[in-house]
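hey
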């Protein structure tokens, strides 16, 4: 059994040594524990620092592509390297690495496909009141949409089984945290959480550049979640509201019309017509969006099947090399060359 701990990084040369120093090299239940750093187009010495401080693998983007893309690049690299379980953590050493054994235990025990580390949000001193409120709201929305009971949805401290990693697809370029939980719920993957500890703040959050920006991005992320994963409910609700208001205004006009006062309420008739047409069209969009969502699910299933074939084929070849040709120390290099990583 192999565990790979992945760390998405963007200009983390200062904090990465602290994070790597805390990571374990042995975890109960695993024969090997490796570290993988995703260098997301850093302009500092993140890649060099990662190698100098013990990272087994470094995957680099030529330009910054955002946290969500770096996360997915890491999952793909871990799968290509033959990981049975993948742990994702942050480069700023926010999460206590000593909790990794507790994080992976539900996966090892076959009780969960995904485990999310639940931070004590309300007790974290360096979190502002606004951030605590928004994170609690975000977690509540995700629980409602996904049908899960994860208390800390924005947490990036997570463990994934190999099967779960192959099933995940992230569309949001801002963050992967909320979307992956919703996907887990919709794809009937077993997901749970365990309490984890946090360390002292080493640097300001990169996601919280300013309060207005954080609020705007949080609202847009939550809205997009509803559009992508609950399209019928989202558009049907809007259409029903428009159609309902249009109906009430139209009935009001008819009341005055039959009372002989219709001439003075032509504006109401026009408004009612506009709202009824808009509501009807939005309801039609709800049905079309539902069909598109079904097609997306089929495409995700095709992608998953292709991933299984690709990764199993790659790891099968690597196992053959281990058994018949090369000593184990050289296999990682051959795997990485084949996968395009360094």
């Amino acid at each position: 059994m192999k565990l790979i701990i992945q760390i998405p990084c963007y200009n983390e040369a200062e904090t990465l040594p602290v994070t790597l120093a805390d990571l374990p090299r042995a975890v109960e239940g695993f024969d090997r524990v490796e570290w993988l750093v995703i260098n997301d187009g850093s302009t500092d010495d993140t890649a060099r620092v990662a190698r100098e401080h013990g990272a087994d693998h470094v995957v680099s983007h030529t330009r910054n592509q955002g946290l969500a893309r770096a996360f997915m690049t890491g999952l793909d690299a871990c799968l290509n390297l033959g990981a049975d379980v993948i742990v994702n953590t942050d480069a700023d050493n926010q999460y206590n690495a000593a909790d990794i054994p507790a994080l992976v235990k539900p996966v090892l025990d076959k009780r969960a496909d995904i485990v999310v580390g639940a931070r004590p949000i309300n007790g974290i001193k360096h979190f502002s009141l606004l951030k605590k409120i928004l994170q609690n709201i975000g977690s509540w929305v995700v629980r409602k949409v996904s049908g899960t009971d994860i208390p800390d949805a924005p947490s990036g401290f997570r463990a994934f089984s190999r099967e779960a990693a192959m099933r995940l697809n992230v569309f949001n370029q801002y963050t992967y945290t909320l979307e992956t939980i919703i996907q887990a719920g919709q794809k009937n993957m077993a997901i749970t959480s365990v309490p984890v500890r946090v360390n002292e703040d080493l640097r300001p959050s990169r996601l919280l550049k300013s309060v207005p920006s954080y609020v705007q991005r949080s609202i847009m992320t939550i809205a997009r979640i509803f559009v992508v994963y609950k399209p019928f409910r989202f558009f049907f609700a809007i259409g029903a509201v428009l159609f309902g208001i249009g109906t009430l205004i139209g009935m009001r006009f008819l009341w005055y019309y039959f009372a002989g006062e219709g001439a003075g309420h032509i504006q109401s008739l026009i408004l009612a017509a506009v709202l009824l047409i808009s509501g009807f069209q939005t309801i039609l969009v709800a049905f079309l969006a539902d069909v598109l969502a079904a097609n997306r699910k089929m495409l995700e299933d095709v992608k998953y099947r292709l991933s299984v074939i690709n990764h199993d084929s790659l790891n099968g070849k690597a196992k053959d090399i281990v058994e018949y040709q090369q000593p184990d120390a050289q296999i990682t290099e051959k795997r990485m060359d084949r996968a395009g990583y360094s």
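Strands lie at 2-9, 32-40, 57-61, 85-88, 114-118, 158-161, 191-195. The chain has eleven helices and seven strands.
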